[in-house]
Amino acid sequence: MAYRHPCRYRLQRSSTTLKADHTDTSLYRAVTKLVRTMKTESRPSLETVLDLMLDAVCVVDAEGHFVYVSAACESIFGYTQEEMIGRQMMELVAPEDRERTLLAAQQVMSGQPSLHFENRYIRRDGKRVDIMWSARWSEGDQLRVGVARDVTGRKRSESLQETVYAISEAAHNTADLTSLFEQVHQITGRLIPAPTCFVALNAPDRGRPTFPYCRTGGDPARLPLEPAAALCAEVTRTGRALLLTANSEGVCDNLKALAATDSFCWLAAPLATAQGCIGALLLNDTAENATYCEQDIDLLQFIANQVATAIERKQLQARLERMAQYDELTGLPNRAFLFDRLKTALARARRNDERLAVLYLDLDGFKQVNDGYGHSVGDLLLQAFAQRLTQHIRETDTVARMGGDEFVMLLEGSPTAADTAVVVTHILAAMHAPIELAGLALAIQPSIGVAYFPEHGTDEASLLRRADEAMYQAKSASARQRCSSPLAVDTLLDKDQR
Q1: Backbone angles phi, psi at 179, to 5 degrees
Q2: Which among 144, 375, 458, 492 could bridge 60 via Cys, Cβ 3.0 to 4.6 Å?
Q3: Where are the alpha helices (DSSP H) in 174-279?
Q4: pLDDT digits (tens, 9 = 90+) for 122-179
Q5: Residues linked to residue 279 through DSSP beta bridges, in sequence order
Q6: Is the CB of residue 234 less than 8 Å from the CB of residue 268?
Q7: Domains and CATH numbers, the chain
Q8: Neighbours of 299 (CB within 10 A)
Q9: How far apart are the first and last CA of the chain?
């Protein structure tokens, strides 16, 4: 049902609210007339109608002062009508929105009506409120008439949905956690001022958190790492987000000194997972007009929850990728990783007309260790051997565990037979000293076979087969020269590879 006011102010009924048509110029004419008559006449019925509206009506003079506000302003901005009259409008606008709000106001005063302009205001209680404005300028009256609608709920819902989607997309598309944190910083900055952002992850073995991500818009050398560490410890302990400013009360003793710091404004939220709190997401703003509020706490906690889930997902992905490429027992690359690396190395060797060597290693007497002392000791022996082996390779070389007690080394950079012999000598020397495990001193060495590209093969399979054959020849020679102890064996390089 439509209701038509005598002043031609048109009201429309929706399913839930009574709302103004922001595009109807009659409203603006009626309001300016109301302002003119309020000083000389008793309040007309139109003002009563305006006070019933859920949307707020505001009239601002050329200097930006409120000269009239409807009753709805109190519920939206938190100030009574009397408190707002005479006040400078820009004082209520959120600092980060003042510049563009002033520009929009100037455009309205130049004769360009503004429809559906959105900005943020600071309520009397410190909370931020999102406002959608429609405004026109009355040249004759030198007044700017605006209709304001509180769209905080809608904006918050939209922001949360966009945040979930954006962080999910970032977690899916970024290659590593650092890239993910950079994206999170950008996403957060669109919702909350975030000139300085930290991601702190708990590291119990170190006694203090690590900071895989810390960025500031100021001097990087002055990053407040100590306060960030203290806040991370506090939100980890409590499991609750925290707002810390110079006026904070009721904070724990170790944060009181931080709270007393000039221009000190922090937000911190725990990164909570099903396994517990893994760290914290922290924002710091040292600007004089820093305006973090209770509303921002809830928002940052929401973001932190999404980030914690994304971190878990990234870490799980990294573990799965590592499991697919690395041997769980020794930490060395596995067979699949080796084949991929060998394929790439062969392509590079063909392109550059280079040589490469493949070494196949097998531990002599390993079966006796498993049979005599158990598989647990055998596993420890494999780990110790892998550790010694990695200490005697170059950064450009690759060592992998094929399975059981079999290992493969890939030497790139056109190694000569002499170069390979040096590597083999170093490996044998490294294994000369007994390995002490579980109260045992095990003297055990590998048999080693060598194959070269292109002399002994031109593809992965042929090179590995030839190196494996050479290794078994070395093992046979070693068996003939075995020492009296079944666990102390010599290892020979295949004769045709010397």
Answers
A1: -65, -40
A2: 144
A3: 177-189, 225-238, 253-259
A4: 999 888 899 999 999 999 889 999 999 999 888 888 888 888 888 888 888 888 888 9
A5: 201, 271
A6: yes
A7: 3-150 (3.30.450.20), 155-324 (3.30.450.40), 335-497 (3.30.70.270)
A8: 21
A9: 101
Catalytic residues: 405
Instruction: Determine the Cα–Cα distance for residues 449 and 357; give it in Å rounded to an integer.
Output: 10
In angstroms, the CA 450 to CA 474 distance is: 10
> Is this model's pTM higher than 0.85 or not?
no
**Six-digit token string for 95:** 């600092």
Residue 390: which of 470, 330, 345, 440 has the closest Cα?
330
Long-range contacts of 428-437 (CB under 8 A, 24+ apart): 428/491, 430/388, 430/389, 430/391, 430/392, 431/385, 431/388, 431/491, 435/381, 435/384, 435/385, 437/377, 437/380, 437/381, 437/384
d(CA 275, CA 279): 12
Determine the residue type at 128: R
CB atoms within 10 A of CB 190: 11
Which tokens sit at 310? 């994304």
Phi, psi at residue 270, to the nearest 5°?
A: -70, 145
- 112 and 84 Cβ atoms separated by less than 8 Å: no
What average pLDDT does the chain have? 82
Question: Do the strands 356-363 and 276-284 form a parallel or antiparallel pair, or are they unpaired?
Answer: unpaired
Q: What is the pLDDT of residues 285-337, one digit of tens each?
A: 877 666 787 778 888 999 999 899 988 888 888 888 888 899 999 999 999 99
Is the CB of residue 292 less than 8 Å from the CB of residue 196? no
- Distance, in Å, from the CA atom of 450 to the CA atom of 396, rounded to the nearest integer, reads 18
Contact assessment for residue 46 and residue 30, using Cβ atoms and an 8 Å cutoff:
yes
Handedness of CA 415, 418, 419, 424 (dihedral sign): positive
Q: What is the DSSP letter of 409?
A: E
Rounded CA separation 426/446 (Å): 12
d(CA 26, CA 113): 14
Pairing of strands 66-69, 56-61: antiparallel
